[in-house]
Predict the 3D structure of the following.
Amino acid sequence: MVQVDLYDVEYMDSSGLGMLLVMKKFLDGAGVAYEIVRSRGQTYDLLSMTH
């Protein structure tokens, strides 16, 4: 399992979001489980809006 801890991330732009989507596509294709944990503030809001 891959765990992405975003606790120290205070801001994420479209490039950061795009990289998470690339990671998701790659890991889904490889059958690897993943989760994004401890996002907060603006990063949490962005991830919540984009599901």
Observations:
- Residues 14-30 form the longest helix (17 residues).
